[in-house]
Design goal:
Helix content is 31%, strand content 23%. It has a 7-stranded mixed beta sheet, with helices on both faces. A 6-stranded mixed beta sheet has the order 10-2-1-14-21-20, covered by helices on one side. A 3-stranded antiparallel beta sheet has the order 5-9-6. Helix 1 packs parallel to helix 13. InterPro entries: Amino_oxidase, FAD/NAD-bd_sf.
């Protein structure tokens, strides 16, 4: 009987929750072992001093195919960002808009100093081209760097420095646009087809929603797995669990000795939250700091996107730093001074709320793939892997990998005649 099988999933992140959902659909009642105190993995939201703080600035791209498969956008009460970005420089700022989404901004974009007229025509051409390409075509395109791709496409250094670098540094969490052009093309296409959004009550709502769909799955929190030995799961407490099937939906190199050193170190980001009396942007738009002398890469007032991020009538500002920095009180003050330089608001008005130093923010994947055969999830007999590190760093890839791992496990449990 399927319900009598001891099926375990290690990790209650997005991959693990999707795997559990797919297993339930096939009649299994899996057990998830989660090291932390809640679901979500890297997608978590904390409540601090009347604010909702996502652990690292994150968004949901509504065009993600897997998100459309598994999520109810109405139930999440999504709040949307305006397409484009605000470029902040000392003594100067200007907006970058998508005239295809907002025709009223077409004239201002034509005269925007973000790039040349040729750049703006190239942007339209790129959007049209990528919309016509399937995801499979994108992920089998030449595996060149994003920076090389942009230059080869004909974009000027001006628009690369003013827009592409600061915008995609915040997505890729690396500062040279060395990330594969496959990822750039996929993300650019997702922005063109849909919207960037956050649930009204923070990104935690996504894993919470997925958890609500699990009717037969048991989740055991604060369960640290020490190692795996065949079918046996050894917990830090010393308890040994025996599985009939297992999905590792966490960093596998930390519990599987044979994979030690085979998963590249994840990329890091520092996320600082400040509160102010009111937003100096006053629209749901991400702002980019293009000057390389600044530590800050991008910022956004989360309360401009969803008012529910604050319960005390103050504005909540999220600041992301992709450069290597030492996290301390001095950093929080330095960033406040930077913000003062581009806004003319006294640095003392930026009240520090909390700083997150996120070491495992995003996997570093070289050979990115849109999907994998279910059988490629297999680590060894009855043990399967799931995680966006297997494909490319995103919610979409996390969901794909969880689904593929569940499919592989289900196949492995079928009797052979």
């Amino acid at each position: 009987m399927k319900n009598d099988s001891n099926i375990y999933i290690i990790g209650a992140g997005i991959s693990g929750l999707i795997a559990a959902y797919e297993l339930e659909k096939s009649g299994y009642a899996p057990i998830i072992l989660e090291a932390s105190d809640g679901v979500g993995g890297r997608v978590r939201t904390d409540e601090v001093d009347g604010f909702l703080l996502d652990r690292g600035f994150q968004v949901l791209l509504t065009a993600y195919p897997e998100a459309q498969r598994y999520l109810d956008y109405d139930a999440l009460k999504l709040k949307y960002f305006d397409p484009g970005a605000l470029i902040l420089k000392p003594g100067n700022s200007f907006a970058v808009h998508d005239p295809l989404r907002n025709p009223s901004k077409a004239l201002s974009m034509a005269f925007s100093s973000v790039g040349t007229l040729k750049d703006k025509l190239k942007m339209y051409q790129l959007t049209k081209t990528l919309k016509s390409r399937s995801d499979s075509e994108i992920f089998t395109s030449p595996n060149t760097s994003t920076l090389s791709f942009l230059r080869a496409f004909g974009f000027s250094e001006k628009i690369i420095d003013n827009f592409f670098k600061p915008f995609f540094k915040g997505i890729f969490l690396e500062n040279n646009l060395d990330t594969s052009a496959r990822m750039f093309q996929f993300v650019f296409k997702m922005f063109a087809l849909g919207h960037a959004a956050v649930p009204e009550n923070g990104m935690q709502a996504i894993p919470d929603y997925l958890r609500s769909k699990l009717l037969k799955t048991e989740i055991r929190f604060n369960q640290n797995v020490k190692s795996l030995n065949g079918k046996n799961i050894e917990l830090e407490s010393g308890e040994i669990l025996t599985s009939d099937g297992l999905i590792v939906a966490c960093r596998p190199d930390r519990i599987l000795p044979q994979l030690s050193g085979q998963v590249k170190p994840f990329r890091k980001v520092v996320n600082i939250y400040y509160s102010l009396a009111k937003s100096f942007i006053a629209q749901p738009l991400i702002a980019l700091l293009t000057d390389d002398h600044f530590l800050t890469n991008n910022l956004v007032f989360m309360t401009d996107v969803s008012k529910a991020y604050s319960k005390n009538d103050r504005a909540l500002l999220s600041v992301s730093i992709t450069k290597p920095v030492e996290v301390n009180e001095k950093l929080e003050k330095l960033v406040a001074i930077e913000l003062s330089a581009v806004t003319n608001i006294n640095a003392e008005y930026f009240e520090h709320v909390k700083t997150y130093e996120i070491f495992d923010a995003l996997p570093d994947v070289e050979d990115m793939q849109v999907t994998i055969p279910a059988t490629n999830s297999k680590a060894y007999d009855n043990v399967f892997l799931a995680g966006d590190y297997m494909l490319y760093g995103s919610l979409n890839a996390a969901m794909t990998s969880g689904r593929k791992a569940a499919e592989a496990l289900i196949l492995s449990q079928q009797p052979v005649y």
